[in-house]
Amino acid sequence: MLITETSPDYQYVASALVNYDLRKTVYGNFQPPHLLDHYLNVLRHGMYDGELKDKYNYEEWCELNNAIDHNRDFSIAYIGMEEFREKYLLKNRSTGSFFETPQMAYMLIAMTLFSNYPKETRMKYVIDYYDAISKFYISLPTSYRDWETDRKSTRLNSSH
Fold first, then answer.
1. pTM for the full predicted model
2. Domain coordinates of the chain in residue numbers?
3. Are 141 and 85 in contact (CB under 8 A)?
4. Which of 20, 49, 124, 138 has its CA 20 to 30 A from that of 5?
């Protein structure tokens, strides 16, 4: 239970509402699709480059799909979900439409990072890295957009 009289975790209730809405927006319902189906759908919208499609075979896509724990999205507090939506999730900036949820993003990041590793070892690296970032053992760096904004702000402020 998220809310009790002694422990009103409103931040997680708000986060759950954001997650439900995000899943409905991205997937059309609460249940996420298979990882490969998701990837191909977003690729058709022109939002992914197609490189991963040929780097992994169908069995690998299935293994990675089975490694995703979509329930981990509900361990992200409200402010974390808002930061995710603002900075990290793939979004059409013109329309505001989102194309992924945190767990899909985490897995695709891991797949991209290790896509050129030897096939006999890379799956372990992909899954281990996915687990590390989706369980918050490793924090993703600040997005380039924020760094660039901070850098410009610092440069402007230091010129006075």
1. 0.83
2. 10-137
3. no
4. 20
